[in-house]
Amino acid sequence: MPTIHDVALKAGLSVTTVSRVLNNRGYISEATRKKVFETMDMLNYQPNEIARSLLRKQSNIIGLIIPNVSHPFFGELANHVEYYAYRSGCKVLLCNSRLDPVKEKEYIEMLKRNRVDGIIMGSHTLEVEDYRNLNYPIVTIDRRIDAIPFVASDNESGGEMAARLLIDKGCRKIAHFCGNLHLDMLSNLRTTAFERVVRAEGVEFLTLQTNMDVFDQQEYERLMAELFTQHSDIDGVFATSDIIASFVIKWCRKLGKEIPRQMRIVGYDDVSAASWVSPALTTIKQPIEDMGRLAVELIRKQMDGETIGREYVLPVKLVERETT
């Protein structure tokens, strides 16, 4: 296997010059740079990234741990994180925890071994103490843990918007689908705000929670069957994800309920699929791209030793389409 010394010898340059080209440090003429890369190609030389990171004390790698890469919200978030990380000179190691605390711990250990510069946590199955002991630049998505910086959308405002829209449209009995409220997530504020508004307005409502696996689509089917069997007089639904809201549309079509005449539906997230389903889904739009960009920015600032705040709550907005 060729080494940096072989590259230097073949190119007729010093090892120091080749190292400066590889690490993009100091002035190097384009002719010299070109000669180094051509020699690397000729010898099939691959730089040792771990060794280079030890020298630089930075790997330019950010770890991203999410609970379910196939879920549209997390898929879109990962896409934006990778885009903005790459623009800032970093690569992303993507870890799919599947809400398994053992797997999540193993991924964290792997990220440590790979000397990542920081970790964006979108999966939150571990205990608070596990996060406290990371000693890495870290940003969490939608969870408040001690002094760790977090990025979230304005969940409370989103819940209020959804409730007021359904009430203003004349709904008198509203079902609310949400994740499991025993999980310590800022997204629970969507439910808190929704229930506060409908209670204050004297509107009848019921709340249906998923099990602890909030992405289990079989569980969504069970909840839909429960709702439409026991509460056939429901005329409005607020779901805390667009995917759950799409299941409501599916069941309304199955049961012959007309949308929006007999049923009005509001989702949350505004993933791309929200505008593709038929009828197109009214939803509360999270600024997913801005959340990904900001998470990367906060990691970079911590890497550079900058002091940053703890709470970064981004505004949401109502996107009204055909389901209301």
TrEMBL record:
Q: Which PROSITE patterns match?
A: HTH_LACI_2
A molecular function (GO) held by this record is:
DNA binding
Which InterPro entries does the entry mention? HTH_LacI, LacI/GalR-like_sensor, Lambda_DNA-bd_dom_sf, Peripla_BP_I
Record has Repressor as a keyword? yes
Report keywords, A-Z: DNA-binding, Repressor, Transcription, Transcription regulation
State the superkingdom.
Bacteria
Looking up Pfam families in the UniProt record yields: LacI, Peripla_BP_3
Annotated ranges, domain HTH lacI-type: 2-56
Q: Which SMART domains does the entry mention? A: HTH_LACI (SM00354)
Q: What is this protein called?
A: LacI family DNA-binding transcriptional regulator
